[in-house]
Design goal:
The chain is an alpha+beta fold and 532 residues long. 42% of the residues lie in helices and 24% in strands. It is built from ten helices and 24 strands. It has helices at residues 24-32, 36-39, 51-76, 87-141, 149-172, 264-272, 275-278, 371-374, 442-493, 497-531, and strands at 2-6, 15-19, 174-175, 178-179, 187-190, 198-206, 213-221, 225-232, 238-240, 243-248, 253-258, 280-284, 288-296, 301-308, 311-313, 332-336, 341-344, 347-348, 350-352, 355-360, 363-369, 383-392, 394-397, 405-408. It starts with a strand and ends with a helix. 33% of the residues are buried. The model is unreliable at 1-44 and 317-321 (pLDDT under 50).
Amino acid sequence: MHIFSATRARNLPVIFYILPFGRVPEFAMACGSGRPSICGILDMALTITNTNTLALLNILNKNLAAQANTFKQLTTGKRINSGKDDPAGLIALQNLNAELTAVNASLTNNQRSDSMLTIADSAIEEISNLLGEIETLVAASTSSANLTAAEISANQSQIDDALSAIDRIVKTTNFNGKKLLDGSFGIQTSNVAGNQYIENVRVFSRSQSTSDTALTVSRVASAQLASATFAFAGGSARTSGTTQVAITGTLGTAIVTLTSGLTLAQIVSTINAAKDQTGVSAIQRSTSVKLNSTTYGSDSFVSVEVLSGGKINATYGTSTGDGNTTNDIHSVSKQSGVDANITINGQAAGVDGLNVSYSANGLSLAFTLDSNFGKGNTGATRSTSFTVKAQGGATFQLGTTAETRSTIGIDSLATYNLGGGNGTARLSELKSGAAKALKTDVAGALTAVREAIKEVADVRGRIGGFQKFQVGSAINALQAAQTGLGEATSLIGDTDFAIATARLNQQQVLINAGISLLGVANQQAAAILSLL
């Protein structure tokens, strides 16, 4: 007996034919003679090796592995959980994550730097306010005619308190345990202490070079005071009648009254009594009285306006003038001083009177020329030199690489270190009993405090500029980079939950179908036993 199976397309039932021995050829002949009802029985043999089950198991295992990967993506939120998930994407993702880590670290650094500089700015603002109070007290004390000695002493006491407050702020202003304004962040120099040609050196920033920077300061042309001739007279010449003149200088205007019969020396003394209001001093020459500004440079000026009188007799003793008008006091239009012409390492430097500023190759600094050197009273000596060390300062990391570091210098703002520019005194000299106290030299005190105000404003402006244009712009750029890199890493590495959920549903259907079909395929093996 032979057993044959016949299958039909479109899921028709399997038909088994049991033929007696010896009839197989006839059956084959029948199939070959075009009888389709039995031709399909030879499509597949029914054996104990169930190839359908094996194929279904392979497909089912693949679907289960795919489902497990989808579960992992949904659980971790990451599309790439191992290198095999997306090798090229993994490489790109690692590079982007490294960049994002550097950006996050730099952003944190810059935000801390911004906070630090904000604290420094607030402290400097308070120092500026105190300097304004000191200036008010000094200016009020210049008019000694309408102030009592007790009032001047009271003003001096307030100035002392304000100076002490400045020093206290300098000592106590800190960030994360580091003092900000006491000179701890000053950039170091050499050949400055003891240099008789320059003083008050302040280095605001330096390059990141590990080598020191040598600077040669050369005087091309001397600075000059603003100057005007007040009167051409000499010998025994004296004023004839009362004269009133308005003398104007950098500090302001004063109305000076010259009574009749004053000698040239007395004229000089009267004018100098008001120099703290005008910024103009007088000196006696052999045949004239000269007026000079008390400071050098193009910003300094002198002008004279004769309001009344003005007669000077060459030979005093008559009640009328001598008729020689060339000896008289005449109005003089504004006469300005001249800034020194200075080069540093061959490059022209910015000069305001005797104050020099220089910026090149990441180095920015300022200093004051000694008055003798600045006005050319040093003979053949036309140059001097000093060195900015590659040490000190406050270094900030602005970007993600070493090339984006920047170093600024913050010198001490203590009273002993403020002022001193353009030939003025230090602020500490305004204290009681010092050289520029109100009772000693009120005019010098006013000039010194105004110079200190300029210096503090310069420091605050430079710190503010660095905070805004360096730190602030770095924060903005890093925040933009952080956003862009975050979007890129999310696009490459994060799971798209909509797609993954749809894929999970598809995989679940395929797995369920595979399990159901395995049951059908297993029934084929059971059918063999029913034939025995």
